[in-house]
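User: tokens in, sequence out, please.
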């Protein structure tokens, strides 16, 4: 089992993580415990989890419907009410077993109920294992704005059991892969090269991939938990990506997944890096072609541009009304706090359209 220390907590990764989890659960043995799941983590992960942790008669399962559209305050209210119905006190423990929707939502519910109860993340998607469950950002969407309501708060423990990924479909795996590609681009060229060659098809690579991505994210977060500076590097691809994701959630019959939107954002923001920080044309092409070798082109229309810009202006990452970007100087090196004009952003979207025609 691999252990990674964060600011106030620990991440454990491997086949034998449940032995360590059982130890962490000891102090909670006489207290109320809840397990938050959606229907898919319920079907694929709950029985394994309960068996391996011996929690059979000792935990209340709360199941919600899957999907980003449920990462809302309404669902929080429903779960806070359930806590009250069970007389859950300050010593209550919430275990979040699921993808990023469950860990973001459950983390927020736990952080705010009675000013904060303990929670443990047991992520079951690649995206949640390498990104969402780590770093202490928890929250919900509101009025079509992604993650606009939330707090920083670390779980007691993050438990990563790579075996859970066996039931995840390829589209969801790739959505997580986008974040791994981002990790390579902002911090580790060698990792990027490995990801370019493809690490997903062989399950023996998963643990290594998860570990490398978490190390990169954790090293950045450790120095800047509340995102005053360096942590902004992790937003590469996300300023434009989040706008595309929000727009897609509202308008598309089959909306983009988070990582799919970030993949579009990575190409656009690599283009911005090219025009603003002289990222070389060679590396811009390398990034674009790698992303498009994994992700289908997304049909962006010029008529969406104004809505995208509006969404970006309201993005919580901005300060003083300007649109803030993390950009690459080269593959493996990122700089934060770069502004780009609306014209630059439109140009980058047009670049994406031109290479996906
Ligand atoms: N807090 C952060 O730092 C952070 C970082 C990145 C992303 N996020 C958030 O994470 C969310 C996306 O996470 P996600 O991609 O995990 O989405 P998700 O939670 O919706 O999970 C994706 C799908 O996989 C299903 N699923 C979960 N585990 C499974 C398993 N083992 N087998 C089969 N199916 C399974 C889910 O039910 C869902 O249908 C977004 O809301 C995003 O904003 C947060
Ligand atoms: Zn992301």
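Assistant: Sequence out:
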């Amino acid at each position: 089992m691999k252990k990674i220390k964060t600011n106030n907590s620990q991440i454990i990764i491997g086949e034998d993580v449940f032995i360590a989890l059982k130890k962490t659960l000891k102090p909670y043995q006489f207290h109320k415990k809840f397990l938050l799941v959606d229907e898919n983590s319920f079907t694929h992960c709950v029985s394994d989890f309960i068996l391996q942790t011996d929690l059979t008669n000792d935990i209340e399962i709360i199941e919600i419907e899957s999907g980003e559209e449920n990462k809302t305050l309404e669902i929080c209210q429903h779960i806070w009410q359930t806590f009250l119905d069970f007389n859950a006190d300050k010593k209550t423990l919430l275990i979040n077993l699921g993808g990023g929707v469950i860990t973001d939502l459950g983390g927020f519910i736990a952080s705010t109920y009675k000013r904060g109860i303990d929670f443990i993340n047991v992520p079951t998607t690649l995206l949640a294992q390498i990104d969402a469950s780590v770093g202490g950002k928890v929250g919900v969407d509101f009025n079509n704005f992604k993650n606009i309501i939330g707090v920083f708060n670390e779980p007691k423990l993050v438990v990563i059991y790579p075996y859970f990924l066996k039931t995840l479909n390829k589209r969801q795996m790739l959505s997580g892969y986008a974040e791994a590609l981002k990790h390579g681009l902002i911090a580790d060229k060698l990792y990027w090269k490995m990801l370019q060659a493809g690490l997903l098809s062989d399950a023996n690579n998963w643990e290594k991939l998860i570990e490398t991505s978490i190390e990169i994210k954790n090293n950045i977060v450790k120095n800047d938990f509340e995102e005053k500076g360096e942590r902004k590097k992790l937003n590469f691809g996300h300023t434009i990506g989040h706008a595309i994701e929000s727009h897609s959630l509202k308008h598309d019959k089959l909306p983009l997944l988070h990582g799919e939107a970030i993949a579009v954002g990575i190409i656009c923001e690599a283009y911005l890096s090219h025009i603003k920080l002289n990222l070389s044309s060679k590396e811009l092409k390398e990034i674009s072609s790698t992303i498009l070798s994994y992700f289908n082109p997304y049909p962006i229309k010029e008529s969406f541009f104004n809505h995208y810009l509006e969404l970006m202006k309201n993005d919580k990452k901005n300060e003083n009304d300007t649109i803030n970007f993390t950009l690459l100087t080269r593959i493996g090196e990122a700089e934060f706090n770069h502004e780009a004009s609306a014209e630059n952003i439109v140009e980058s979207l047009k670049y994406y359209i031109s290479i996906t025609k």
